[in-house]
Amino acid sequence: MQITRADFEDPRLAAFLQAHLDDMEPTAPPESRHALGLGALRAPHVRMWVGLDEEGIVGTVALATLTDDHEELKSMRTEPRVRGRGVAGRMLAHALRDARERGVVRISLETGSMEFFAPARRFYARAGFVGCAPFGDYRDDPNSTFMTLALTPS
After folding, report:
1. Using CA atoms, how far apart are residues 22 and 28, in angstroms rounded to an integer?
2. Which residues contact 82 (CB under 8 A, 6 or more apart)?
3. How far apart are CA 46 and CA 42, in angstroms?
4. Distance (Å, whole) CA 110 – CA 3
């Protein structure tokens, strides 16, 4: 798998992100769904990467700046055909390495609290993320789980 900065003109990326939004749609009411669409991921404060194999996009990850040293993990998704093959781990490691190199000291995330998101919560916990209070513009929401990771310098 090759990891590269996202090409927002690539129609495969738009389709991949739409599949992510479609996956989230039945899990919670609209006000509790926080996945970003293509337009929001283009914002200057967001850095996004894609994982590619010979068949196309297999993973995405993004980091959105909250403060100079705190960023939010966004748009973590693995193509269903390659789940369980380490794509998510490699994508997360790439994003965390980039954040460390830029002096970021904390990465936080919001994910769902429902059973659908249990594998994601386990994945993040294995990576060292721990539960935390809502951050940024988030508020307490029974449909959300908030997690954070303190980064050590590289």
Report:
1. 12
2. 53, 58, 59
3. 7
4. 23
Q: How many CB atoms lie within 10 A of CB 4?
A: 10
How remote is the C-alpha of 105 from its chain's centroid? 17
What whole-number distance in Å separates Cα of residue 3 and Cα of residue 58? 10
* 88-127 residue pLDDT tens: 999 999 999 999 999 999 999 999 999 999 999 999 999 9
Query: pLDDT tens digits for 128-138?
Result: 999 999 999 99
Residue 49: name the closest of 80, 7, 17, 89 by CA.
7
What's the rounded Cα separation, in Å, for the pair 11 and 91?
Answer: 20
Secondary structure string (H, E, C) spanning the chain: CEEEECCCCCHHHHHHHHHHHHHHHHHCCHHHCCCCCHHHHCCCCEEEEEEEECCEEEEEEEEEEEECCEEEEEEEEECHHHCCCCHHHHHHHHHHHHHHHCCCCEEEEEEECCHHHHHHHHHHHHCCCEECCCCCCCCCCCCEEEEEEECCCC
pTM: 0.92
